[in-house]
Amino acid sequence: MKLQYQLTIAFTTLLVIIMTVAGILVYSMMMDMLIKDEKRQLEDKGELIVNFILYEDLNNTANVQRLMQLLEEYNLQVFAYDDRSDSLLFSSIANVDIVEGWITRYDFEEEEQPLWQGYEERYVVSIIPLYTPVSTQHLVLLTPLQDLQAVQQSLLGRMVLIFLIGIGVAVALSHYLTKRLVTPLTKLKYQLKKIEKRKFDEMEDIEATGEIKEVERSVAEMATELKTYIQSQRQFFQNASHELKTPLMTIQGYAEGIRDGVFEGAEEQRGLNVMVKEIGRLKKIINEMILLAKLDSEENIYHLRRINLAELVKQTEERALPIANEKGVSLHIKAPENHFIYGDQDKILQAMMNIVTNGIRHAKTQMLISVVDKGQFYAVDIEDDGPGIEKELMEKLFHRFVKGKDGETGLGLAISRAIVERSEGTIRLDESTLGGAKFILEFPKTK
After folding, report:
1. Is the separation of the CB atoms in 368 and 383 below 8 Å?
2. Per CATH, which fold does 305-444 belong to?
3. Pick the CATH number of 3-151 from 3.40.47.10, 3.40.50.2300, 3.10.180.10, 3.30.450.20
4. pLDDT digit string (tens) for 344-380?
5. Backbone angles phi, psi at 432, to 5 degrees
């Protein structure tokens, strides 16, 4: 069953249960409310009748006639009883035996009167005392319970009709809302199918709000990352085959030339030197590719421990200083003490050396390595005063076999990124205030 129908059925079922429970509670309380309201109305009408004949003795025939006119006008069932004389003064109820039975059975002085029982009928009762100088009389007003039950049934019918209309409107509204909710999810499913089939160019924006929009953005970002990853993998294999084939062809050419006697004497020696150099370059490429593969897949290659950033920067300076002196580049260090992170010190040192040696190769006169406290993390900024990096190259510089000007294997920065990310850090490029490139390595602080 589709999610839209499941949600509609769930909302409808919940609404029916709530409205049924509410209806049962209202129905159970309705009769009590009607009885109380009827008693209040009887009291109001009784007070009005009493005001008409205020302080008049009901033994007077004229007063009785005036009272009967009012009773007929209000369509009331009443009778009057005198306590002192223990006599029934008058009654609009034809069956006098029922009235005498009530006089005997019920206490007229009781404040809360129960329902009075007739032969086949029960009555709601309101008693109003009338005090005269010579006697104490009671005016009793009655309403058959059957009349209230008829009102109750009428209200129940209306309530059921309102409930049915409410349920119909709620079902239609829930169907509309669930359709708006489910439609983006359905479209999102087709987007995922496109990603599965690698149709990244056919991805479309989905109109949605709230969490669904956030999921849609995450899916779009995932598709972009996956597209970039697939493209980088293709580029990787193309570049890897090129980088490996070039030294192999050189080695093969000199080896065949030496074997066939084409190169002799000094040329043979030069060929052997070139072969050794190319084998060394080939070995370096293979070792870096193996390291990248291990960083991506093996857990035990990375050993976490607490690292003092000042000490790490100092080690980087010591190793890079001979290269910098040879190039005529001065190194400047700003590394405060007591800044600690977690990571593999040897690996992070290797990552920093890859970046620093690249910077020395492109710097004009100076490089700056500084440690900056940025709240929840520390940043290691490595910047130079060289020509900088082209913007189109900045986005893919950390991909494998992507080389800048005068680059070597194209794997150094990819290795640096893999090492930094294994330390739960990030690495990015920016423009340096010195005029060249600025690499920013950010690491979470140790707790």
Report:
1. yes
2. Heat Shock Protein 90 (3.30.565)
3. 3.30.450.20
4. 888 888 888 888 888 888 888 889 999 888 888 888 9
5. -85, 150
